[in-house]
Each structure stands twice: as structure tokens, then as C-alpha cells.
Amino acid sequence: MTNANKQRVLIVDDERVNRTVLAAVLKDENQVILAKSGEQALERLSIDAEIDLILLDVMMPEMDGYEVLRRIKANDATKDIPVMFITALSSVVDEEHGLTLGAVDYIGKPFSPSIVRARVSNLLRFVRQRKLLETLAGRDGLTEIPNRRTFDQALAQEVGRCKRSGQAFSLALIDIDYFKQYNDRYGHARGDEVLKTVARTLTLALRRPADLIARYGGEEFALILPDADAHGGLEVAETIRRAIETLAIRHEDSTVAEHLTISVGGITTADGERLPNELIAAADRQLYEAKRLGRNRIAWLDEQASATSPGGRAPCEQE
Fold it and tell me: Residue ranges of the GGDEF domain (predicted)?
């Protein structure tokens, strides 16, 4: 098997002998990348996010494995990479802490090479199957709603339809307010459950079969509303915003409310000449505006009216 066909495993351990032993155990079936510190691992991930699995030591100088894991999970480009702790810390409390932060497995030192090989093989098989299913089904593996690829295809089709018909449509980006702080306080396992709950709530809030909600990345979702003017787009956005508030998911580290909230940035256009990435950028600017105004609100650009209409708690509020 050539390196191009092998799955990629990043081993992070400050002890050279541990890196050497683990690399020897895994190198025949996998492409192995080595890092001797947390900083070196994060630097590698910043330029190469195509890693399939990370084996991470906990007890390292300067930056321990727990902090490395927090940073991996806080980065949209790396948060879905599974992390396996291999460490001398073997108490139940240590294992629970690692799993709460988002690790998928926890192996104590001294480790058995055959056990490491088997567990890595099982995890990588799952990673391979997940990626294949996401590609084939166009679905996000965690939330089970359409993924970014499906959204990109749907937006391109909607822009083409708009160009042919001249009919307006609405596009929105939705962001969970202070989601990093939620993960930091409650752990990534609960954060993942929140993402799934939010995805289900957004899906149930849609009114028409043609409307599309997709996971855009991290804690962001994207919404396409065909044949929807600004008033209709704002109504749907406000319904979604209220639905998330109604969940009353406690969020003690939010400065907006004691519960989970979302911010929404949207655009209504009938300009079929605009490129999809231009429309996404316009919606993203409105999302930034909603956050600047205090979050838990909607900011909307109606290109048909050539005016900005940020919405707050009342749907279709004009300013």
C-alpha cells in the first residue's frame, strides 16, 4: 500500500522512545507523522488538517495533552479529527476528564502494541466509513442534516434558477452564540449533543420541502429559501431564533442570556449574476453585524429594496 492510499496518523509525545515504538507499531498500515510537543502538533495541523487520527500523550511540558485537545476541538478545521489519549495517567477521573473534553479513546501506559494496533485499526475503519458515507449521502456525520457539499451544490442550483427566472431567493448563515465557551464549560460531548439538537430544531422550523438547512461548519448552519422575499426570509429566521430560545438549553458562560441563543445574517437577492461565494460573503457580513449589535438577533440585507434591515426579537423589524 502506497503512502497516498494510507490513512494518516499523528503521534504526539515528548518522549522519543514512545514516538519510536508507536511509529513502529503503526507504520506498516498507516502514514505516520510525529510531533514532540503540543505546539509542534498544532503547528502541523494548521498546515495539514487531513489527519485521520491523533494519538496524544497527556503529560508533556509547556502544553499538556488536555490543552492540545481543547485547541483541536476549538478549531473548525480540526475539531472532527478523533483523538486517542495514550498516557501514564490511568485513573478513572483522568479517563473521564479526557473523554469529556472530546477524546474518543484512552489507553494507559505501559501499553500493549497489539491493543494499540487493534484500537487504531477500528477507529480508522470508522473514520473511513464516515467519510465515505458523508460523501455518498451528502449528509453531515454528526447532525445527519445536509453537509457543506450539499449546500454548495444547492446554492449553485438556486443561483442558476434565479438567473433564468429573475425570482428572488433568500440565504442565511446561522451561528450558535458563544459555542466555544459552551464547549469549554460543559465538554465537547455535550457540545456535540447540542449541535444535533439545534440541527433537529432548525429542520423542524422549515415550512416548505424546497427549503434547505445544512451544517456549514463547526457551530454554523446555512439556510436557503427559494422564492422567498426579505419579509419571508426574516419570518423564517425569527421562527428559528425563537425555537432555539425555547429549547432553554442552559449556557452559563454566554453574555447574551442564561440559555443557548443564535445569531442570524441573511440576504435576499434576485441578482442571478452574483457568484455563490459573493452571496455567502454578503450573508456573512450580516451575521457579523448581528453579532456586533449584541447577538441573539437577525441582521438582513434586502437587495431588492437596497436597504439593510436588521431584525431583533420581532420578525421583520426595520431599522
Answer: 167-303
- Note whether 3 and 31 are within 8 A (CB): yes
Q: Which of 219, 220, 238, 289 is an active site residue?
A: 219
Sheet holding 262-269, edge to edge: 212-217, 220-226, 169-176, 262-269, 298-302, 307-308
Residue 14 inside a domain? The answer is: yes
Given 80, 100, 135, which residue is the final one in a domain?
135
**Cell of residue 261, nine digits:** 441563543
Note down the domain range covering 189: 148-308
pLDDT digits (tens, 9 = 90+) for 85-110: 988 877 778 788 888 888 998 888 88
| Residue 241 and residue 264 in contact, taking contact as beta carbons nearer than 8 Å | yes
Residue 220 known to be catalytic: no
Domain end marker among 68, 100, 135: 135
The 3-state DSSP class for residue 296 equals coil
Asked whether residue 113 falls in the same domain as residue 237, the answer is: no
Q: For residue 256, what are the CA distances in angstroms to 114, 129, 201, 218? A: 50, 39, 20, 20
DSSP helix/strand/coil, 268: strand
> What is the spatial distance between Cα 25 and Cα 32, in angstroms, rounded to a whole number?
10
Same domain, 43 and 171: no
Q: What is the pLDDT of residues 264-283, one digit of tens each?
A: 999 999 877 889 999 999 99
Which of these, 108, 13, 2, lies nearest to 65 by C-alpha position?
13
